[in-house]
Amino acid sequence: MPENPTTEPTPGLENLLHETRSFPPDPRFAEQANAQAGLYDEAKADRLAFWERQARELVSWRTPFTETLDWSGAPVARWFADGTLNAAYNAVDRHVEAGHGDRVALHFEGEPGDTRTVTYADLQREVSRAANALAALGVTTGDRVVIYLPMLVESVVAMLACARLGAAHSVVFGGFSADALRSRIADAGATLVITADGGYRRGAPSALKPAVDEALEPRNGAEPTTVAHVLVVRRTGQDVAWTEGRDVWWHEALEAADVQHDPVWVEAEHPLFILYTSGTTGKPKGILHTTGGYLTQTAYTHRNVFDLKAETDVYWCTADIGWVTGHSYVVYGPLLNGATQVIYEGTPDSPHQGRWWEIVEKYKVSILYTAPTAIRTFMKWGEEIPDRFDLSSLRVLGSVGESINPEAWMWYRRVIGGGTAPIVDTWWQTETGAIMVSPLPGVTAAKPGSAQVPLPGIAAEVVDDEAHPVPDGGGGYLVLSEPWPSMLRGIWGDLERFKDTYWSRFPGIYFAGDGAKKDEDGDIWLLGRVDDVMNVSGHRLSTTEIESALVSHEYVAEAAVVGAADDTTGQAVVAFVILIGEFADRAADDAGADAVQTALRNHVARQIGAIAKPRKILVVPELPKTRSGKIMRRLLRDVAENRAVGDATTLADSSVMTLIASGLAKPSTSSED
Ligand code: ATP
Ligand code: MG
Fold this sequence. Notes:
The protein is an alpha/beta fold. It has a domain at 525-664: ANL, C-terminal domain (GMP Synthetase, Chain A, domain 3, 2-Layer Sandwich), CATH 3.30.300. It is built from 22 helices and 30 strands. Helix 8 crosses helix 9. It is globular. The protein binds adenosine-5'-triphosphate (ATP) and magnesium ion (MG). Residues 277-281, 323-324, 400-403, 425-427, 429-430, 451, 512-514, 526, 529, 628, 630 line the site of adenosine-5'-triphosphate (ATP).
């Protein structure tokens, strides 16, 4: 952990920040927005009363709660603890009971082009059948079920079936290896695994079940697996190995099951799911979320941040259910609010680079929620592609996962949002369960690149080393100083690690691991993880800011910067950049590469200041990313410091590091002035 926070603004940083614009909320939008400015005042006046109201209005309780928050066991919170409810009932049945059974819940779009429309009434039947099928396989309240599936209707049904029984699901992203799956199954002590024969990706069927078979194989010296059954969805029809007695077809189990199922009413603090974090920063942690508070905050944020109008909107969150975004903003938040949404199985470039925009046009998607990595990819592909489609239905755009570079923000608004759609840059984590910092459309004047303000009811601050809030214009650590309903309740099976990881840096305060600053208006800018912050001659430099400066140059599609040890300056900035196609050719020979590097280094100096000028800029064909699309800077740091590359098992594409290392073997001619 760095000793000094960035309390001093980076010299010259104002150029980058103040050049960025601010867009006042569209008044036509504001009049009908779900969130009105009064929400902030209400929450400020009485935070707990505010959450109590949200919990009563947005969630249906079997037994109403009488106490809002019990923080006596801090840092393990208990919200609405004496209430009882069921998450699947809240997501499905109550909409049917309210007369909305015919409303479409899911428009499924398979990668090969097959489609399926599922109403809330359909979903109720499917989830009930699945819950009965799971129960028949021995799953009971309190058990753990691992779900290892592509983006299918069955994936949503499987999660809700677990919730209906009061069994915690632990979804493992379908791109993870057999080993990653094995360790998560073991850590969770799962008794059932739900998988598929395979799924479609990049135009071809890819297998899933073999990884499950491998993960469950007995191993010398290892504990025997706790898994009794594997439930297999048939998606591609490819051949699968079959273990008699253990493996069961999903469709056969569901056909045999009754369509009636009484949800199991659980206490508000009953575990809803365990989700292992993606591992950008180390050994995966089983983040535990419980029921009542989690549902309250996911429903509240989904309704207000995206301004959802359940009767008219078509919502599409492109995240996979393997990530927390897929849990909170594909499954629980939207379904609790009775939304109609699109789910898509495949990749954005199958069978062509306009696939997403074709989907937006086809379903008249009005709210789109995606990640900066996707937006930068579309920028690289060129705006002629989205321009071919009618995107006029879009009215709110969201971003999550990393800071969105101002350049990408502007592009997103102009090319995808028709120049008017508000963009909500939402900061949150697997651990926070739901959105914490974000503008509210119709209320907040939008600033490209800034996540801006804590939501009503959320106490987020930027603090210095001594946990004092920094003044406007200062930088430090982003912390959460008051408990919130959807906060994690621990790391599965490891209370000490939970306390140590999140509550020890500033006693009694949750520290998220991210650096941030406040601008002159008090708006929050995320600066990247504090572990990635660089210290150059005593100046603390943010990865996000230098990357945003690089991406704002016309040559650059994507950038990652790291600090490499340096004898004179302590650390030196090393940048890895992917160039936009037409400019990539220019860097093909040494002289061209030199010219490109000089141009980019000068650009960073102009945008931020000479201190931020990268010592080295390496043009690379790809960047190492996690399977959720985030840059793994620690691997790049290894490369920049000429070390053997560390654990790369959570990389989406392991060949990337070889590509980068071989490019680097060429002597770099660029050095500091
Ligand atoms: P791991 O914790 O295993 O290293 P991870 O942190 O990438 O993985 P997530 O919980 O999915 O796993 O991501 C949360 C992190 O993503 C935040 O701590 C922050 O660094 C980053 N992040 C998410 N949204 C934003 C945003 N809008 N702006 C800036 N950073 C964001
Ligand atoms: Mg994290």
